[in-house]
Specification:
The complex is a heterodimer of chains A (about 280) and B (about 325). Chain A is α/β, with parallel strands linked by helices and about 280 residues long. Chain A has a domain of about 180 residues: Rossmann fold (3-Layer(aba) Sandwich), CATH 3.40.50.300. Chain A is about 35% helix and about 25% strand. In chain A, strands 6-7-8-3-9-10 form a six-stranded mixed sheet, with helices on both faces. Chain A has a four-stranded antiparallel sheet with strand order 2-1-4-5, with helices on one face. In chain A, helix 8 links the parallel strand 7 and strand 8. Chain B has one domain: ABC transporter involved in vitamin B12 uptake, BtuC (Orthogonal Bundle). Chain B contains twelve helices and two strands. The longest helix of chain B is centred in the first third of the chain and has 32 residues. Classes of the chains: A alpha/beta (about 280), B mainly alpha (about 325). Chains A and B meet through helix 3, strand 6 and helix 4 of A and helix 7 and helix 8 of B.
C-alpha cells in the first residue's frame, strides 16, 4: 500500500472518537428490524451529519445512542455503543444526559404549556440548581436573542423556528459534550434553516459541543458538517468528508437532484432507479 | 308546598339567609376540592385518571386515626401517616406503573381500579371496618357574619384548602421539581430526552397526591368520622373535575366552589321556583345537581373551565 493511501486512512479514521457506534442492530416490538448493523464514529469537537431518506434509520440511530428507544419498544439487539470509551447501551436516558449526551428530538418537542424560559431551565434538570444555571441561561439568550424576547410566552404559541431554537437551547442547558440533533430543518423556511445551522456551527466552535445531526436536507447539512454518513434501509451505504460527499456524483444525483446534465425536471427523474448498488 | 326555607321559618329572600346558604355551600365545595386536587395532580403528570384517589383519602385517614388511637401525638401521627403514603407511592411505582410504561392509558386506568380495591381491603384488614371518630382539635363552633351563621370547622377547611393550593401552586411554578412535573405532563418523551427520570417523577407525584389525600382524609374524617363510605367522595370529585378541568389546580378549587354553592342554592331557590308551577316537585336537587351540571359541561366545554386546551396539529 502506498504511503499516500496510508495517510488517507489515518486521516479518515478518527483519532479520538467521542462516540463510537459499532455494528448496531435495532429491532422494534421484537419483530421489526430497523437498523441492520450501523457503524459510525463521531470525533470530539466535530459536526457529523447522518443523511438519508425517510425510514432510512436516521432517527432510530440517534435514539439508540440516547436510549430513547426503550420508550418506543425498540431495543439494541447487537453491536455496541461507546461514549468516551464507555459502553452505554444499557444506561438510561437520564444517565446519558449526566454523561453529556443529549438528544434534540425530531419535531422539536418543546413543553407547550411551559414558557420558553421554563423550557430552558428544565433542560438543566440533571445539574440541580445554582448560580451557574442562571449564567448559562444568559449565555443561551446571547446565542438566541429571539428567545430572550419570547421568554415569557408559552412555548406552544411560539413559531416553529423559535421552538427549534428553544429545543436546542434547552439541550445546551444540560452542558452537553454531544448533542444528537434530529432533523433541525423540519418544517422551517430555508432562511431559518440557514440561521439554525449557523448557530449550531457557532455552538460547535465557541462552546466545543460536538454534534451528530440527522438531516434530509443533504445540501445544508453537508455544508456545515465535517463528515457525513449516508444511511439507506438501515445500513450505512457511504461515508466520507463532507466536501467529498457534496461533490460525489451519486450523492448529487440521488440526494441533490443534480446530474451531469445539470438540474433535472422532477418529472424526468427516474424515480429511485439506482445506477449501481453500494452494497 | 314546603321548601326548606319555609320549614326553617325564614324568608328565602332575606339577604343574610342567602349569605348563609352561599357560604355554607362554598365551604362544602372546598371539601370536594380537596379530594379533586389529588386527581388533578396525578392526571397532570401521567394522564392517568386515578380511580384509587377516593380510597387513598380513606386509607390515609385510617392510618392517621389508627396511629392516633395508639396514643401517639397528633403531629407525629401526621408524619407517620405521610410516611405510609410515600411508601405506598414507591410500591405503586415499582409494582404497577413501571411494568405498564407505554401501555395504553386504559390499562393504567384499570390498574388504578385494582389499587383501589386492594387498598380498601388492606385498610380494612389493618384497622377494621368500624366507624372511627376523629378529633384533632378542629374548632367546632359557629360564629356570625352579620346575621349569617357560619360553622367554624367549615371555615377551617377553607383555610387549609387555600394554604394547600397556594403551596402547590408555588411548588409547581417556582421549584425545579415542580417544573419537571409540568414538563413531564406536557411531553413524556421530551422530558426523557433531557434526562428527567420518569420513575422518580411518578413517585413524587403520587406522594404529593398521597399528602393531599391525607389532608382531605383528616378534614372529612373530622366531619363525618373515618368510615368506608368516604370512598364515595370520589364520585362527587368527578363533576368538580369536569367543571374545573382535569389538568388545572385552580380549576379543582373553583369547580368545587361552584358545585358546592350551586348544590345548596339550587336546593333552596330552584326548588322554590319549580314548585311554583309544578307543586308536587319534592326537591332533593342537591343529590343530582352536580352531575347534571357536569353533563352540560361535557357537551359544551369538555376541557372544563380551566383545563388546558388540547393543542393538536392537523
Amino acid at each position: 500500500m502506498s504511503a499516500v493511501a496510508l495517510d488517507q486512512i489515518a486521516e479518515t479514521a478518527p483519532k479520538d472518537a467521542l462516540l463510537r457506534v459499532n455494528n448496531v442492530e435495532v429491532i422494534y416490538d421484537h419483530v421489526i428490524l430497523v437498523l441492520k448493523g450501523v457503524s459510525l464514529s463521531v470525533p470530539e469537537g466535530g459536526i457529523v451529519a447522518l443523511l438519508g431518506a425517510n425510514g432510512a434509520g436516521k432517527s432510530t440511530t440517534l435514539k439508540s445512542i440516547s436510549n430513547l428507544l426503550r420508550a418506543e419498544r425498540g431495543e439494541v439487539t447487537k453491536g455496541s455503543i461507546e461514549l468516551l470509551g464507555e459502553k452505554v447501551h444499557h444506561l438510561t436516558a437520564n444517565d446519558l444526559v449526566k454523561r453529556g449526551c443529549v438528544q434534540v428530538m425530531e419535531g422539536r418537542h418543546c413543553f407547550e404549556h411551559l414558557t420558553i424560559e421554563e423550557n430552558l431551565l428544565t433542560g438543566a434538570y440533571t445539574r440541580g440548581g445554582g448560580s451557574e444555571v442562571k449564567a448559562d441561561l444568559e449565555k443561551i439568550y446571547e446565542y438566541f436573542p429571539r428567545l430572550k424576547e419570547r421568554r415569557k410566552s408559552q412555548a406552544g404559541y411560539t413559531s416553529g423556528g423559535e421552538q427549534q431554537m428553544c429545543a436546542i437551547g434547552r439541550a445546551m442547558m444540560a452542558k452537553p459534550k454531544l448533542i444528537l440533533l434530529d432533523e433541525p430543518s423540519m418544517g422551517l423556511a430555508p432562511q431559518l434553516v440557514e440561521q439554525i445551522f449557523q448557530i449550531v456551527k457557532q455552538l460547535n466552535e465557541n462552546e466545543g459541543v460536538t454534534f451528530l445531526l440527522a438531516e434530509q436536507n443533504t445540501n445544508v447539512a453537508l455544508r456545515y458538517a465535517d463528515y457525513g454518513y449516508i444511511l439507506e434501509s438501515g445500513r450505512v451505504v457511504m461515508d466520507g468528508e463532507a466536501d467529498a460527499l457534496l461533490s460525489n456524483e451519486d450523492v448529487k444525483e440521488f440526494y441533490l437532484g443534480l446530474s451531469k446534465e445539470g438540474r433535472k425536471n422532477f418529472r424526468e427523474v427516474k424515480h429511485y432507479k439506482r445506477r449501481k448498488r453500494w452494497l | 308546598m314546603e321548601t326548606i326555607a319555609t320549614l326553617l321559618g325564614v324568608d328565602p329572600f332575606d339577604l343574610w339567609f342567602f349569605v348563609e346558604v352561599l357560604v355554607g355551600g362554598l365551604m362544602a365545595g372546598v371539601m370536594y376540592s380537596l379530594v379533586a386536587l389529588g386527581f388533578v395532580l396525578i392526571f397532570k403528570a401521567s394522564s392517568v385518571f386515578n380511580f384509587a384517589q377516593g380510597v387513598m383519602v380513606l386509607f390515609a385517614a385510617l392510618n392517621f386515626v389508627g396511629f392516633l388511637d395508639m396514643g401517639i401525638p397528633v403531629w407525629l401521627c401526621f408524619i407517620l401517616a405521610m410516611g405510609v403514603m410515600v411508601l405506598l407511592s414507591f410500591v405503586i411505582e415499582r409494582v404497577v406503573l413501571r411494568p405498564l410504561v407505554n401501555q395504553p392509558h386504559i390499562s393504567l386506568f384499570m390498574a388504578t381500579i385494582g389499587i383501589a380495591i386492594f387498598l380498601e381491603g388492606f385498610g380494612e384488614m389493618l384497622w377494621g371496618s368500624s366507624i372511627k371518630p376523629l378529633d384533632v382539635g378542629i374548632p367546632d363552633d359557629v360564629f356570625f357574619l352579620g346575621e349569617a351563621m357560619i360553622q367554624q370547622n367549615d371555615m377551617f377547611a377553607a383555610v387549609v384548602a387555600s394554604v394547600l393550593v397556594i403551596a402547590l401552586a408555588l411548588f409547581f411554578h417556582y421549584t425545579r421539581i415542580g417544573r419537571a412535573l409540568r414538563a413531564v405532563a406536557d411531553d413524556h418523551q421530551a422530558a426523557l430526552s433531557i434526562g428527567i427520570p420518569l420513575n422518580h417523577i411518578w413517585i413524587i407525584v403520587w406522594s404529593v397526591a398521597g399528602f393531599v389525600a391525607l389532608v382531605a382524609g383528616i378534614m372529612w374524617g373530622s366531619k363525618l368520622g373515618v368510615q368506608f363510605s368516604l370512598t364515595v367522595l370520589a364520585l362527587k370529585a368527578l363533576p368538580v373535575l369536569i367543571l374545573g378541568g382535569f389538568t388545572s389546580i385552580p380549576g379543582a378549587i373553583v369547580g368545587g366552589l361552584i358545585i358546592g354553592a350551586g348544590e345548596k342554592l339550587s336546593e333552596i331557590y330552584l326548588v322554590d321556583a319549580i314548585q311554583s308551577f309544578y307543586p308536587s316537585f319534592s326537591g332533593a336537587i342537591e343529590e343530582w345537581f352536580a352531575y347534571i351540571l357536569a353533563l352540560a359541561f361535557l357537551v359544551f366545554r369538555p376541557q372544563g373551565l380551566f383545563g388546558e386546551k388540547i393543542i393538536e396539529r392537523v
